[in-house]
Amino acid sequence: MSIEIPRIAIGQVWQESHDFNPVRTETDDFVIERGSAAYHGNLGAGSTLGGILRHLASARVDIRPILAARARPGGTLSKQTYSKIKAEVLERIRTELPLDALVFELHGAMTADGIGSTEGNLVAAIRELVGPRTVIAVGLDLHGHPSDALLQSANIVTACKEHPHRDVVQAGQRAAALALATLCRAIRPVTAVATIPLLLRGGYETHEYPLCELHAAARSRIAESSGKLLDVSIFNIQPFLDVEGMGQGFVAISDDDAELAGRTVELLARECWRRRDEFVDTMPDTLAALSTMAANPTVRPYVLSDYGDRVLAGAPGDSIEVLRSVIESSMPLSCAIPVLDPATVQVAIAAGVGAKIRVAIGGRFTPGLRPLTLDVLVESISNGEFTQRGPYQKGQRTTLGATAVLRHDRHVIIVTSVSGMTQDPEAFTSQGVDIGAVDFVVSKSGNHFKLNFAGIAEPIVAKTPGLSLYEPGLLPFKHARVYPEHSISEGSPRVRVFRSEIP
């Protein structure tokens, strides 16, 4: 196969699963762009696929767009949904054969019924289809689960390094650059992975201790390697997966040096396990966060993270507990809050704009939560579609589903039919909500909202109830065995090495 002008397929299959969310992710939850639409719709996007495309567009290659399929984080994919997406990806790749390389954005923590690593399953099928000569590179989210099935089938697996994810574009550029270097035989990638049975209880952001020191150590190892260590990714795995072998993951790619890659990930993993009890939660509870806002009236507006009901971590987004706390505490605060509640949306649509109705809102999916009954005014109805402003996921189309904007006293309630990506201000402004007209808005995000609301609202995080607040003993793990969920005293890294053999 000539590679004078390499034929390189690109694509995206992106969703982060929460295995304890009772709401399954279905085909209709995905936005899918096919062929040229996948190219033009993502070339300028603030995503890993956007970085892949921008790097390849600047190179002398023939880009063959497959598809871009993405859904908001949520429950496990149904078997039918995953099978349908997988079949389409494979069929579209088949029509583009022969290929010199594929560079895809995947998440790394997408599960389907009976499949703990869909990324591993998908890339293994792609490898079987394209054969051993085609270079496969994958860009992941750092909350992914780097499974052996994935690492066995891909030549390059890299992830973003920052949380919040300021560098997803750079992750895509790196995946594409390493793919091209492999294709032209400038490097011979060897990948090592180390896994330890650990979930973090806090200190999730990469500027916090001790996580920042682990990343600094990884950067030092690269700098000291004289070019032999190409990349190190530290995976703070999505804690709401329930799959065998999960835990903190460390992946290193070297240029034909298995010993260097293996030693690097083992050292990082051992240090992480040694410091496992230093990852602590320092979030204020809901009332403390509300009190902070009430005590600082010159700081307006705030954006409050509903940490326990984070859609960006796969929770349903149906909690209305923040508004309940405001009302019951009688604090002088007004808010705009998104809530998943398809039934209430239908009641509002039937009543019509301008109607006054009494409804029980929220608490329909998350165990332990309950609705809040309020008298409200139906202010507007929409299809809930919007394009994210970014920078995180800038330019990506998404939807809240059929949506009703309700008003109760000084408060605005955005009631949605699907779990919403409300880390972005467009989730509010697209529904006619003036962010500056309330004391605070509620984002169903724990970290990325800080990027997208920068310069718009002051961020504050609250330890709220819900399925995305990890505390040992709250969730019914059946397959994973991890500390501190389980009594594990020995955390020796499990190290594996995978060598790319490009004929």
Task: State the gist of this model.
This protein has 503 residues and is an alpha/beta fold.
Characteristics:
6-stranded mixed β-sheet, 22 strands, 8-stranded mixed β-sheet, alpha/beta, 25% strand
Overall helicity: 25-40%
Rounded Rg: 23 Å
Low-confidence stretches: none
Residue fraction in strands: 15-25%
**How is the largest sheet built, in terms of strand order?**
14-15-18-19-13-20-12-21
Quaternary structure: single chain
Globular, elongated, flat, extended or rod-shaped: what is the shape?
globular
Please work out how many helical segments DSSP would assign: 13
Largest sheet: 8 strands, mixed
Derived from helix and strand composition plus strand pairing, the structural class reads: alpha/beta
Whole-Å distance between the termini? Answer: 11 Å
Description:
The chain is α/β, with parallel strands linked by helices and 503 residues long. α2 (48-57) crosses α6 (168-183). The mean pLDDT is 96. The chain has an 8-stranded mixed beta sheet with strand order 14-15-18-19-13-20-12-21. The chain has 13 helices and 22 strands. 27% of the residues lie in helices and 25% in strands. β18 (403-408) and β19 form a beta hairpin. The longest helix has 18 residues, at 79-96.
Describe the protein's topology:
Blueprint: E1 7-14, E2 17-18, E3 31-34, H1 36-40, H2 48-57, E4 62-70, E5 74-75, H3 79-96, E6 101-106, H4 118-130, E7 135-140, H5 148-153, E8 156-159, H6 168-183, E9 189-196, H7 211-223, E10 229-235, E11 248-255, H8 258-274, H9 286-294, E12 302-306, H10 321-329, E13 335-340, H11 342-351, E14 356-361, E15 372-382, E16 385-387, E17 397-399, E18 403-408, E19 411-416, H12 426-429, E20 440-443, H13 449-452, E21 458-462, E22 494-499
Parallel strand pairs: 1-4, 1-6, 2-5, 6-7, 7-8, 12-20, 12-21, 13-19, 13-20
Antiparallel strand pairs: 3-4, 9-11, 9-22, 10-11, 14-15, 15-18, 16-17, 18-19
Helix pairs in contact: 2-6, 3-4, 7-8
